[in-house]
Amino acid sequence: MRGAVLVLFCLLGHCLQPVQAQEAEPRSESELGLKDSLNLTGYNEIYYAYGNPSAKVQFSFKYQMIEKLPLYFGYTQLMFWLQQQDSQPFKDVNYSPDAFYRIQAKAGILESVDLAPYSHTSNGRDGADSRSINRAYARLNLETPSANQEIKMVVTLYSYYGLNEDNSDIHDFISPLDLRFTFTQFVPWIFDRGQLSVRVFPGGRLAENWGSGGQEVGLSFRVGGFGLQPSIYIQYYGGYAESLLSYRRRESIARIGIVL
After folding, report:
1. Which domain holds residue 176?
2. What percentage of the chain's residues is helix, strand, coil (to nearest 5)?
3. Residue 153 maps to which CATH number?
4. CA separation for the pair 120, 73 (Å, rounded)
5. Please, what is the Cα angle at 85 between 83 and 91, to 5 degrees?
6. Radius of gyration of the chain (CA)
């Protein structure tokens, strides 16, 4: 299992490399043909972060389903890895496919709007450990670029449907509101390609309970002079619903690893 995860992680990193970095040499015709056939681009972050009691591994991509229409299939998989145990099992795996249509706005700081009639998250289990969420959403992508810095804000509004009986109270911990802020090159004289990301979401059906939601803060930066391609990644999560299996339990954990 561990080997398969690492191979898939490397393959996705290779597929997304043309989107995230400039290549030093021109690509061959075969490489160009592979990219055109896969048509995979970055979606959410791809990272590995070690922590106690669990490490986190996430990979993600999106795929444009129609060449001249901005209709996308997105996929994110988040794994919680108990590396300190003898058999190093995965405590929980959250699978999140979705389909969304992107409307380019270019109105002030509003860059685009994503509309998704279907967004599913589940942990692939049955019985008492089964967890799944079906949602539709509208996602506003805002950006304020400048000469050297960039600030992005993503506001997502969800509508839940088809909840299981086992997690019908998930509204108490994951509200319909999700906010993400990303600050790029916020202190360029200290960090090379430094990026600070903050995600916050309240609990409650009307997003009224900020004490029962969650907060995630991530800091990534390159180490200059070593030629290291991944960025160093430091993450802190505090609150509820980090994973579907334990969404009712409050957790506070710091992790460190790499992000592609």
Report:
1. 42-259
2. 15, 55, 30
3. 2.40.230.10
4. 12
5. 65
6. 19
81 confidence band (pLDDT: 50, 70, 90): very high
Of the candidate ranges 28-37, 177-186, 219-228, the one whose mean pLDDT is the lowest? 28-37
The torsion angles phi and psi of 32, rounded to 5 degrees, stand at: -65, -40
The answer to whether the Cα torsion of 128, 134, 138, 142 is positive or negative is positive
- The amino acid present at 203, given as its one-letter code, is G
pLDDT tens across 13-28, in order? 444 443 333 344 455 5
Q: Both tokens of residue 25?
A: 């040499």
Given phi > 0 = left and psi -120 to 50 = alpha, else beta, which region is 241?
Answer: left
**How many domains are there within the chain?**
1
- Does a structural domain hold residue 12? no
Spatial distance between the Cα atoms of 171 and 163, rounded to a whole number of angstroms? 10
Asked if residue 163 is part of any domain, the answer here is: yes
Confidence of residue 62 (pLDDT cuts 50, 70, 90): very high
How far apart, in whole angstroms, are the C-alpha atoms of residue 158 and residue 248? 19
Q: What angle do CA 221, 224, 225 make, to 5 degrees?
A: 155
The Cα–Cα gap between 71 and 128 comes to: 36
- 26 token code pair: 């021109």
Residue predicted with more confidence, 81 or 86: 81
Helix/strand number for the chain, H first, E second: 2, 13
Domain assignment present for residue 34? The answer is: no
Residues forming a β-bridge with 50: 256
| Structure confidence by residue, pLDDT tens digits, 98-131 | 999 999 987 789 999 999 999 999 988 888 888 8
Phi, psi of 253, rounded to the nearest 5 degrees: -150, 140
